[in-house]
UniProtKB/TrEMBL annotation:
Domain of life from the UniProt record: Eukaryota
Gene Ontology CC annotation, any one: endoplasmic reticulum-endosome membrane contact site
InterPro entries for the chain: StAR-like (IPR000799), STARD3 (IPR051869), START-like_dom_sf (IPR023393), START_lipid-bd_dom (IPR002913)
Name of the featured protein: START domain-containing protein
Gene Ontology MF terms in the entry: lipid binding
PROSITE patterns for the chain: START
Any GO BP annotation: vesicle tethering to endoplasmic reticulum
SUPFAM superfamilies: Bet v1-like
START domain: residues covered: 11-214
One Pfam family hit: START
Amino acid sequence: MANAWRIITLPNWTVEKRGSVRGDVVESRKVEGYGKVYRFTGVVNCPARFLYEEFKNNLTKLPEWNPTILKCEIIKEIGDGVDLSYQVTAGGGRGIITPRDFVILRRIALLSREGRVVDDNPHGYISSGVSVQVPGYPPLKEMVRGHNKVGCWYLQPRTVQTAGGKIEDQTLFQWLMCCDLKGKIPQFVLDVAFATVMLDYIVHVRKFVAEAKARAEF
């Protein structure tokens, strides 16, 4: 988690692709020990706490509203804010990348501006994950086992004033990705695929948020 936060807050990123929504951007940079990492940044119209609680408490429900994830199950709750999960992604990049499965050790927390874990009034919320090996979940013959070197969703609360003077909560949504998808995939293909996957993902997040708002869930 500390490594994910440190990397996602680093300066000097290079733009890979901009999205159709103003402010949406996928960037990349090289990081010692990890190689090339990718970062998505965009704004979602909901309180950051709402998204954090959804990711925290309803991880297994992600496939219900996010078609980029085919399966997600909790293997074990290890402690407060720490768990093991098995996930299958739908692939992406307009068919460039086939489905992969992952075994992820996840850590979620509220963070201060300096990246320290706090109990309340956070500067941001983090849900981080790294691949691990777990007995009973070996790689499957029919599935390529991906390796998540470092990654997180980092959600920062923002408020904006509308033209009518109303104050609304927003989330500055950032996603750090550094995956070894295995297989001999050229870097230029990965650049296109990762950028496309990240920009597709945020479309589903915004749709989920809009539907939740319509149901008065926040």
